[in-house]
Amino acid sequence: MTQKRNELPSAPKQGETFQWEHYFTRRQFLKGSAAVTATALAAGGLKTGMKMGKSAYAADELNGGDTIDISTICENCVWRCGAIAKVKDGVLVKLEGNPEHPNSRGKLCPRGNAGVKVLYDPDRLQFPMIRAGERGSGLWRRVSWDEALQFTADNMKRIKDNYGPEAMIMSSTHNLTQPYFENLLKAFGTPNYGTQRSLCFNAMTIAFTYTYGLAQPGVDYDNCKYVIYTGRNLAEAISNSETQQMMDFAAKGGKILVLDPRYTITASKAIEWLPIKPGTDLAFFLALNHVVVTEGLYDKEFVDKYCVGFDKLEESLKTYSPEWAAQRCEIDADIIRKIAREFASQRPAAVAHPNWRTSNFTNSFQTQRSIAILNALMGNWGASGGLVAGGEEGGAALGSLSQPPYPKTTAPRLDGVPWKYPLVPLKYGVIQEIRDSLLTGKPYQGKGWLVYRQNPLMSIPERRKTMTALKNLDFLAVIDILPNDTAYYADVILPESTYLERWDPIAPAGNKLFLRQPVVEPLYETKGGLMILKELGDRLGLGDYFPYKEEQDIIKAQIEPFQIDFDELVDKGYVELESEEHHEIEFQTKSGKIELNSSLLESVGEPGVPEWQEPPAPPQGKFYLLTGKVAQHSQFTTQNNEWLMELMPDNPVWINTQVAKKLGIKNGQKVIIESSVGQVIDEALVTEAIRPDCVFIAAGFGHLSKAMKVGYNIGVSNSALHETHTDSLSGCQALTETFVTVRPLSGEDLAGGGTA
Ligand SMILES: Nc1nc2c(c(=O)[nH]1)N[C@H]1C(S)=C(S)[C@@H](COP(=O)(O)OP(=O)(O)OC[C@H]3O[C@@H](n4cnc5c(=O)[nH]c(N)nc54)[C@H](O)[C@@H]3O)O[C@H]1N2
Ligand SMILES: Nc1nc2c(c(=O)[nH]1)N[C@H]1C(S)=C(S)[C@@H](COP(=O)(O)OP(=O)(O)OC[C@H]3O[C@@H](n4cnc5c(=O)[nH]c(N)nc54)[C@H](O)[C@@H]3O)O[C@H]1N2
Ligand code: SF4
Ligand SMILES: [Mo]
Q1: N or C, which terminus of the chain has less Cβ within 10 Å?
Q2: Rounded to two decimals, what is the model's pTM?
């Protein structure tokens, strides 16, 4: 393949070996790159206290006015908002929200706006490469696509021939091409599939599935009167449309109660913020349910008609009085009683939000069960102002290309699903167990790992352990857009085109079908994921499972049942289908009803109704380590985005004012934070906005990849501190069960210091 004209003169030639971090200097790139505007960023729907800085160069580029609009879909997080790309002379100058898309409602969040910088990041992956030195040495050889794909296929075949297909692990975080990634792993014949879900929402989705038969209900905000968020921080952990709905709800005086040990921006929108003791939300909800049931405040008619197991629930709740709960969650019994009464008085327009990343404690699953049950007691399902079907559920049945059936796999899964985790769905998995299996060799030794759109080295707790596990592998391949940390330690890297340069499968949203399409010509030697997977499949002898020549073949097959004109779809970016008819209430549980008492839990020897599980608490002198999202960054990926790094350049550790005083720690001072598995040095952010027994470090920073020149070694990684705790029922990791010490950094520490 010939070199593209947009390559830097310093880029290695094909076949050349190079030291990664020595290439692609930033200054050179900026001169020749697209002009971008910082006002694009400021157009975001949220106020983030942003500064205008060096990215304001060429800010008047838009003034010419002769841009064209192309509709596509954002990929800077999993919410996938509709976006309008403003393109001038083949250069993307600005991204805006598509008013027709229900997830963006016309606005992009700061990360969505900064998508321009994803496309024009000089550090992004530019061509396929194969490792040419020790793992992690940064020595690589630039190769052709043919060589990289053949190398990947040969290694996968070698592993299959020598150890069976199950020795090959494949993992991916939710994305539009994921069904084709799953296609590859099923056709290849490995059961070992890892997703981000056990690091994220397993507790919530599994609890709601076994209660309602539905994983992720939404909220009818327009008619709702009262919402309780439990560690859900919508104002910063953004789900664009729902964040907007929450803000509107707050503005019109809707009652919001936030339970969070930290004063988040969401808490600042609430009428009541309760800095609950970490891990005790279960006690709080058991007590709410107790009051609602013992005082007869629940919707009896709804419960009789749609629920099973009320008697067992009633019996089990007897002991969980507000006084009992107050001793555990450190919220006054009177307040708990008052909240229960006020909340129930608004039913059915009263919602205990299902939340999202509920991976805090091993009792989070039972907390979520109690939350699901409280909603059932409010009779709010499908009611005005209550819970509604949403999230991953429903949607139009898209067409597909026909392909052969998959081979049968008989090997047990490395992650223990279902033999150790009988309740965890196969498509969720327990990825941290896969990592652990690589260290124990049990139930057998995994040999290869193909990672797609994921950064397990940063996102799985106990980073040092993950690093050892990766080094144990015979073969590690990564498909990404950035030189992420996992890629830096890989054997081969397959560079995907960014979401602004490629076609992906259709993304349904409400009753519309949206299209992701290239808004500019792909830069460099990158390819869309659908083509990478197909070409890999072809080389593995699995071509029949990828019966398409180009991405559009898939899209055309998907829209085939609806008689939609492809060109119209491309032009407009979406098509609207007829609204679906309203269906009768139907619960996809074993009993066909809402299971207050879960027969499924009983069938695996667990109590059918939630019981109190005492969470671990830090010993004297240690703190709960809280983690979470910030509005300016996405997970472990945007810390190389210059615009977003200007908004939030690092992640200081929050520590309570009184505690800091006692420990002799001043704001901005360097402190050393230590857990049983690692140690980091960070700056202290001394604040009243956190409980005295907690510290908080935002997720995402502290990158190990030297090829991410903006993000490398900036801030700290809390995955370096997190211990691995997993809930035996939902497989969800429990991040707040890590306890740390914090002390000022001394000269001695510096002599032997460093981060884990
Ligand atoms: N300490 C701590 N750990 C956590 C969390 C936390 O809050 N704190 N949060 C947890 C949660 S909720 C989750 S969901 C997980 C997330 O865990 P991961 O999914 O592992 O993390 P991401 O940073 O989202 O990884 C996304 C990767 O996809 C790449 N990428 C982005 N766009 C594309 C694309 O178009 N194509 C390709 N091929 N690659 C792309 C990015 O460059 C990045 O490398 O982490 C969990 N772990
Ligand atoms: N800007 C931005 N938005 C995002 C993301 C992003 O990376 N950036 N990621 C997306 C993803 S994948 C997800 S999963 C969601 C996550 O969305 P959320 O779950 O809403 O947010 P998090 O920030 O992960 O964690 C929320 C809070 O849990 C609190 N917490 C910790 N332990 C406890 C406890 O025991 N009890 C209570 N009540 N609270 C506790 C923490 O203090 C933190 O404020 O956000 C999504 N939206
Ligand atoms: S919430 Fe923000 S980052 Fe996520 S898809 Fe929407 S605009 Fe993009
Ligand atoms: Mo997540």
Answers
A1: N
A2: 0.94
